[in-house]
Amino acid sequence: MAINRIPFSKPASSPEQLLQKLERQGLVVDDFKRGQARNYMRFVGGYRLKGYWHHLVDPVTKNFPAGYRFEQIVSRCEFDRELRALTMAAVERLEIAVRVVMANHLSLKHSPHWFLDGNLFRQGRRQGAAELVAKIEAEVDRARDKTFVKHYFSRYSEPHLPPSWSVCECVTFGLWSRTYQLLKNPDDRKAISRRFNVDATEVFESWIHTLTVVRNMVAHSGQLLRVTLGVAPRDYRKADIRFSDSKSFYAVATVINYLLRQIGLPLEWSEQLKALFAKYPEVHLAEIGFPIDWGNRPGWL
């Protein structure tokens, strides 16, 4: 069905004008909070802040609920910001774990330069393997100023790339996720996933792909509150992990918690979430897909 489009004609408004507009729509801004409100409008931005309140206004009048205060918007914004920071720290821990486990297993079983062996990747996907090497070459080239990369090229003539344990410090998490997807030998895939206590390789593949998408999202300050994610981790039935909404943040958080518990390194993800939820009781957990009894569900126990 054709959509009738019109030229964009909205004028730009200053932060002060936007704040005044919100007040006309019924938003309460106390005098002693006005300076803070201006700073949020100036340095966070009215358009970004709208992501935290647009669902609250009357669809016809565009007015806020009676008595709704600017600091309530601030709480929602700060909750989301702190949730992103916690998520980034947790995913970073898992990113390093995944790439080290993959590099160690494949280097020990095949060779330190296993990624140059096209036979390790699925038949019919040689182009994928070639693209993989090309991306590694590009990432290593960008990292030429790093001490460990300089050392390799100053000492060794071949292969033309450093070994896997060096390369893994250069390339992106997305590339490691793609590498796992391309691996041909099911024994290699299973050996890697089992280090994280996941027997189903298709589940592990979907989980690390999900983590790469979420990592990029939070790295670019994407909103998590009231957002449907564009990626869905698979259920892991062996561990009784099933998601009623696999595109919710709760699904991602469950994957993060399960994997963190398998590696046994210090990062109290579930406790950090509990502390965050207690700090912002006005934010409903359902807005990020968390059930009330989330701490007692599979993946969290």
Automatic annotation (TrEMBL):
Traced from the root, the source organism's taxonomic lineage reads:
Bacteria, Pseudomonadati, Pseudomonadota, Betaproteobacteria, Burkholderiales
Source organism's superkingdom?
Bacteria
InterPro entries tied to this protein: Abi_system_AbiD/AbiF-like
What is the organism field in this record?
Pollutimonas thiosulfatoxidans
Name recorded for this polypeptide: DNA-binding protein
